[in-house]
Please model this.
Amino acid sequence: MTFQTEFEFTLPKGFVDEEGTLHKKGIMRLATAADEILPMKDARVQSNPAYLTVILLSRVISKLGDLQTINTKTIENLFASDLSYLQEFYRQINENGTGKVETICPKCEHRFEFEVVPQGE
Model:
């Protein structure tokens, strides 16, 4: 059995680059301790703690459509719904180690595992 460290995602709306190209599919890797600690030294985070999310996502998203690089400017220009989706996806894969959610049927107590897909997919 291999340990999965990268997870595919699809943004609800998608990132529109300067040429007008829409990028929806991407890959996020598991975060390391450095990914969470090093941004705390950044002046942008010290003056605005909410900016931690922007730096953190720019570090762990390894692919987004055909973009050559993903940086803080890319994350800053995401639609709010896509930013929210990525924050939840980050939490899900780093806390549970999977892009899937497990639940139990309250009637029969059968376990179900499913992947969360944004509406409109």
